[in-house]
Amino acid sequence: MENPIKEIRENLGLKRAEFADILGASYSSLSQIENNLAGKPYKCVLEGLEELGFKKAEVLDKWDKYKEHKRKEKLNKIKDKLAG
Q: Which pLDDT tens digits describe the chain residue by residue (84 residues)?
């Protein structure tokens, strides 16, 4: 499962710096989101995505599913390490 924010950017064919500029976010903020270092997408990113026509609720739903998937991946790695 891919990060939904990164997926949107890649589908638009934009580099991270370009996308951050369009969204009104800093490069580092977008990087944190794309690298799973943010709990939720920042407000400026969500507002920028809405301006592009994406629905905030749908983006957040996909984000929550992505974060849960990543959490389970980490949990399973730990369980495998403990079992092995």
A: 999 999 999 999 999 999 999 999 999 999 999 999 999 999 999 999 999 999 999 999 999 999 999 999 999 999 999 998
Buried b (16+ CB within 10 A) or exposed e, 23-57: bebeeebbebbbeeebeebbeebbebbeeeebeee
CATH superfamily of 4-83: lambda repressor-like DNA-binding domains (1.10.260.40)
